[in-house]
Design a protein that fits this description.
By secondary structure, this protein is of the alpha/beta class. It folds into two domains: 151 residues, Quinone Oxidoreductase, Chain A, domain 1, CATH 3.90.180; 172 residues, NAD(P)-binding Rossmann-like Domain (Rossmann fold, 3-Layer(aba) Sandwich), CATH 3.40.50.720. The chain contains eight helices and 15 strands. Helix 4 packs across helix 5. It is globular, with a radius of gyration of 21 Å. 44% of the residues are buried.
Length: 344
């Protein structure tokens, strides 16, 4: 008879006021039941930490339900099947699932996906270039902004998980010039030296618009926005007529109040959208699921050919997860922020 397992999980203890602090989280121990028919017991190897997790900690309506107080957080994770009571899965299988922030999970087999990675590609790629962040960059560039050969592309948050891939994808599809912004001279150099961007902006050095106009003197045709705020305002000012913006996130405001009465003001030059006939479109990656197979084939091919660089910032142990989220929002990561919980 299969017995249950003792597991640990990170719960939301209270809703943050501004930047999360340790008391907003709780580490709890639970006894999981044995998996039932059609279910798996999965031990988490590595979990993803993503910017969208901060807005989910607020109790406000959004495209995804907020985290519940007293309940574990969740997110993408790679795990190994320890017990299978489902056809098609065996102990030892590597799988992708959505119940991160916990050491183990019991869940229906329909809610996991077996990993099939190109030879030589590490399992963490399923949370990076071949996972949600890669698909987000790909869908935003090619479905939403519709990057064309020769375009000048500006990417904010370009040293992060999504932005670093967006810039590389644009170059691989023939963009004429790719400019990225990042926090600090080391990250700005990383964009050009390691990732193949044509120019890297250190947004801490001075006004973003001044740096952008120097880096893209002929204007911007496509903007991939991860930051919002002054970056969005600068992109509107630097945009060419009929430029296309893919609005992915606004990390600059995630720790700010989300009520309209107290939220930070938006860009001051919104009327330029009219005169320049710009197209600004927000998007959710889940709306592009029909394109996943094409994404997997193209990006998997780039990885197998060694044409993509992806960096990871890894914290160790489940207890490190809350600090990893805070660090992500502060820009302490280069590439994908991950937390390693156990070894295979």
């Amino acid at each position: 008879m299969v017995e249950g397992v003792n597991a640990r999980e990170i719960r939301l203890a209270r809703r943050p006021q501004g930047e999360p602090v340790p008391d907003d989280f709780e580490l709890a121990e639970v006894e999981l039941p044995a998996p039932g028919e059609g279910e798996l017991l999965v031990r988490t190897l590595v979990m993803s930490v993503d910017p969208y997790m901060r807005p989910r900690m607020d109790d406000v309506p959004s495209y995804v339900p907020p985290y519940r107080l007293g309940q574990p957080l969740d997110g993408g994770a790679v795990g190994v099947v320890e017990v299978s009571r489902a056809d098609g899965f065996s102990a030892g299988d590597l799988v992708l699932h959505g119940l991160g922030w916990r050491s183990h999970a019991v869940l229906p087999a329909a809610r996991v996906r077996r990993l099939q990675l190109p030879a030589g590609v590490p399992e963490t790629a399923a949370l990076g270039p071949l996972g949600m962040v890669g698909f987000t960059a790909w869908a935003g560039l090619f479905d939403v902004a519709r990057v064309r050969e020769g375009d000048t592309v500006f990417v904010s948050g370009a040293a992060g998980a999504v932005g670093s891939l967006a810039g590389q994808f644009a170059k691989l599809r023939g963009a004429g010039r790719v400019v990225g912004s990042a926090g600090g001279p080391e990250k700005a150099r990383h964009l050009t030296a390691d990732l193949g961007f044509d120019a890297g902006i250190d947004y801490r050095e001075g006004p973003v618009l001044d740096s952008l106009l120097r880096a893209a003197p002929d204007g911007v045709d496509v903007y991939f926005d991860n930051v919002g705020g002054d970056h969005l305002e600068a992109a509107i000012a630097a945009a060419n007529d009929f430029a296309r913006f893919a609005l992915c996130g606004s990390v600059s405001a995630y720790n700010s109040p989300r009520e309209l009465a107290s939220a930070p003001p938006g860009p001051r030059n919104l009327f330029s959208i009219v005169g320049k006939r710009l197209r600004l479109q927000g998007f959710i990656v889940g709306d592009h699921e029909a394109r996943r197979e094409e994404f997997q084939q193209e990006v998997g091919g780039w990885l197998a050919q060694g044409r993509l660089v992806f960096r990871e910032t890894v914290r160790e142990g489940l207890e490190a997860a809350p600090g990893a989220l805070v660090g992500l929002l502060r820009g302490e990561n280069t590439g994908k922020m991950l937390v390693r919980l156990s070894q295979r």
